[in-house]
Amino acid sequence: MRVLAPQLRRWYSRSALGHYTLLEENAFLEELLCEHRGARVLYLSSIADRLPGLSSPFRSLYRVCGAGEVKQAQVSTRCEFDALPFESESLDIVVLHHVLEFAEVPQQVLKEAARVTASGGHVVVISFNPLSASGLWATLWGGMHRNSVWCRRNLFLYRIRDWLAFLDCNDLGTRYLCHSLPLNHRGYLRLNQPIGAAMSKLNLPLSSVFAQVSRKETQGMNLLKPDWKAMVLQRALSVPKAVQPLRARSVASESHSRYKIH
Prior knowledge:
The chain has helices spanning 5-14, 16-33, 106-116, 133-142, 157-166, 186-202, 228-237, 246-258, and strands at residues 40-44, 60-65, 77-78, 91-97, 117-128, 169-177, 209-216.
């Protein structure tokens, strides 16, 4: 990770902007996961213990944080996000919560997430949006403060979609969350809630966070079987050619050889 996990946790828990962002993201996750009852869900996040899941009837729920992070009470295990300790195609929903923009090699992390996702399962990428006021502030402020949450990689949505398409994950849609300016002020965020809710319903692509939902569809090999009924019908309707008698064929061959120039 390019940023220390305690700083990201501190930003979510202690800052008003981080608390507002987490509420918006958890509301989206609850809405999404309630549509998939009995699913096997995996959370990859530095704050995996603060993501929803207690009220949803999951078959199994795994919360995984980074290898160098402090393990929380509700976290299942710690590991590197590019080497997950799960079998291939063993999970139904994999949520990458602000992982790619802080990973050293985001392509490898996404490839590993697609590996453990079963065919027909969903890969959900929650990331900060570079095309927003928050993304502009991160570009200006992050360059001067290397050890902060604003120092992150700018991952555009089209690039994430290309990576997912290469991994046989088809695009199901994008939700844009947290329509607000990057102002860490409780009064402003309270007044901005009605405006942010209206902009979220319109799903305007200028939000601070976007959530990309994709479905993995592994293309199997389709065997081409012969159409025996058509072949039998075609053979039955075909008109047999007239068989030339053997004597006539021999005479024709002799005449042909007679006039052949050597």
